Amino acid sequence: MNNKYDVVMGIEIHCELKTKTKCFSNAANTFGQKPNTQINAIDCGYPGTLPTVNQAVIIMAIQTCTALKMNIDPLLRFDRKSYFYPDLPKGYQITQFFHPIGTNGELPIVVNNEGFIVSFERLHIEEDTAKQIHNNKKTLLDYNRAGIPLLEIVTKPIFNTSEQVVAYINTLRQLLIHLQVSDAKMNEGSLRCDINISLKPHGSDTLGTKVEIKNLNSTHNITLAINDEINRQTNILNKKQKINLETRRFDEKTNKTISMRSKENKIDYKYFPEPNIFPIQLDEKWIKMIAKNPPELPKQIMERLKKQYNLPIKDINLLIDKVEILTIFEQTVAINNLILPTFNYLVGPVQAYCNINNTTIKNSELTANNLSQLVSLVYEQKINDKQSKQLLNAIMINSEKSPTDLIRTLGITLVSDSNDLEKILITILKANENMITIYKVNPEKALKFFMGQLMKLTKGQANPQVSKEILKKLIENYN
């Protein structure tokens, strides 16, 4: 970026809440269901229907405001935002324009090992729109998302770099997950990011023309979009041209921001108080009760995990980012006291199983007791990697039998006897003497070949660590 200009950015986060039902109706709040099956008359704005405020939404909003040190408005008020668009079935959206439930507040983050304070403008509650699916010349509409409760969290224009923005989003995302108000999955759209970005002459107090980049769904794309937009605006200003007030989107094919619509003629949303929801006076004692016992938050978890487990920061961040892994990790370590082996097994074979089978630990039959046994068997070299995966596949879908029970049922044994392994390896070496010559030039290639032959003869049941030690000695002393 040209040093002639200062970058100023503000961030708007839309976060879907994981309530059981929608914001103003009793329709189920779900993801991934068959299109247009999770809707009702209230979500579609049928004549004669009336919205009812979901209490769980208010509780989650108060919890989030408290964690962000915001001022909470005890008088709950909603407004109507009127506009006509296919994804808005009622022709208007219920939101909080005039009186957000939360204002001001701050969130400390770390950017490149330095502290940075994010300051907020507001947090308000609103309902989500339907989802548009563009299919060639047609646009399909899935109303399952219509009415899902959202928190819109708006920062002040305080960011100057993409690194600050990404650090903020990662920190906020972890906070929302541990508050248990949202799963905050950007890839599923439950956390979406809009960036308002402008450039101004270096040192100037006057902000430049603001450009909004809508619906960014990954930190990678956020970085690319910000960098491209900075370059685009810099080039325009260097040519003494005017920045247009507009909304843009990020094109993943070209890694460029593309204009969506001009904001020169601002849309008149005709905001007015929502006539179907009267103001609700929240009891101050009730608000304090909700705010009184917050869950353990990421910063607290970070400090505790450092002291308790002495894991590297990158590993601790991974645990904080994946709550279900953190939960079963702590439960398992409490049983077997194998900190690093348990961590490595969870982020290795267990996570790989979940990815391949499109599932989660929560939706599997894996228990801390079974995981503890499995990790211990691997750590004590009583089973090898292949056998551990065989056992894992079984216990992920059936928790009735323990790994030790399954070893007997499946007939799994690990050949660790040195004499037995030596006899088999001598046979392999005699049959493949040419590979012993190759060992002197390329030991890795030769070892891989011999171990492959061994596993074939033992049907994958040879202890790899013991076998490698014996193999190296045999090769070095081979006549």
UniProtKB/TrEMBL annotation:
Keyword Translocase in record: no
Protein name per Swiss-Prot or TrEMBL: Aspartyl/glutamyl-tRNA(Asn/Gln) amidotransferase subunit B
Subunit structure: Heterotrimer of A, B and C subunits.
UniProt record similarity statement: Belongs to the GatB/GatE family. GatB subfamily.
Organism (species): Spiroplasma ixodetis
Swiss-Prot/TrEMBL keywords: ATP-binding, Ligase, Nucleotide-binding, Protein biosynthesis
The protein's enzyme class: ligase
Alphabetical list of Pfam families matching this protein: GatB_N (PF02934), GatB_Yqey (PF02637)
Catalysis: reaction(s): L-aspartyl-tRNA(Asn) + L-glutamine + ATP + H2O = L-asparaginyl-tRNA(Asn) + L-glutamate + ADP + phosphate + 2 H(+); L-glutamyl-tRNA(Gln) + L-glutamine + ATP + H2O = L-glutaminyl-tRNA(Gln) + L-glutamate + ADP + phosphate + H(+)
